[in-house]
From TrEMBL:
Pfam families membership: DUF1508 (PF07411)
Protein name from the UniProt record: DUF1508 domain-containing protein
Domain DUF1508 per the UniProt entry, residue ranges: 11-56, 61-107
Biological source species: Flavobacterium anhuiense
InterPro entries: DUF1508 (IPR010879), UPF0339_domain (IPR051141), YegP-like_sf (IPR036913)
SUPFAM superfamilies referenced in this protein's UniProt entry, alphabetically: YegP-like
Native organism taxonomy: Bacteria, Pseudomonadati, Bacteroidota, Flavobacteriia, Flavobacteriales
Superkingdom to which the source organism belongs: Bacteria
Length: 110
């Protein structure tokens, strides 16, 4: 089962990582100024993860595939790592779809 891990960045902002059951990070959030905003971001990921239209499939300047997960308003709510292949990116998207909706929250800032 997946989990959202909330941590604090060096600049004091909150962020979350969605980790798959094997512990691998499959989605990383932006920085949030408050923990409440971070929790809202997690809820947005849970609500949008199942919709394939919310995934923006991209390629980095170095040619590596990656994706962004967007909310209904078009705002990016999470970004993936860089993948070695398009197939690996698609597996990452499927992993987010599978893990996010029922993921637990592990708040490591408390």
């Amino acid at each position: 089962m997946g989990k959202f891990v909330i941590t604090t960045r060096a600049n004091g902002e909150f962020q979350f990582n969605l980790k798959a059951g094997n512990g691998q990070t499959i989605l990383t959030s932006e920085g949030y100024s408050t923990k409440a905003a971070c929790n809202n971001g997690i809820e947005s990921v849970k609500n949008n993860a199942a919709d394939d239209n919310r995934y923006d499939r991209k390629e980095s300047s170095s040619g590596k595939p990656y994706f962004n997960l967007k909310a209904g308003n078009g705002q990016i709510i999470g970004a993936s790592e860089m993948y070695e292949s398009v197939a690996a990116r698609e597996n990452g998207i499927e992993s987010v779809k599978k893990n996010a909706p029922d993921a637990t929250i592990d708040d490591q800032t408390a």
